[in-house]
Specification:
2 domains; about 50% helix; elongated
């Protein structure tokens, strides 16, 4: 029997057990993110609360420096040392 895909012959059917696969397959958080991404793709004009990056037109490159300076100013006002503020701004807060 030939398959429609490049003349390949399909092999025997394999039953996959979800629990035996990677954790992300059964993780409810992944299912929620997939749902939100699907909603965002079906309704692109709606305000997105889904996972992922924000709409590009909401931000200007010029704003990045101003926002970063405000955040660093806040951290320093809270007493954080310069080396720690660098870690917070360059390492996703790790």
């Amino acid at each position: 029997m030939r398959s429609r895909h490049r003349g390949m012959v399909p092999g025997p059917m394999v039953e996959l057990v979800r629990e035996a696969l990677h954790t992300s397959v059964t993780d409810p958080v992944s299912a929620s993110m997939n749902f939100l991404n699907e909603v965002a793709s079906r309704f692109p004009a709606a305000v997105s609360l889904a996972a992922g990056r924000p709409f590009d037109e909401f931000y200007a490159v010029e704003d990045v420096e101003r926002y970063l300076a405000a955040y660093v100013g806040y951290l320093r006002a809270e007493g954080m040392a310069s080396c720690s503020t660098a870690g917070r701004t360059a390492s996703s807060g790790r």
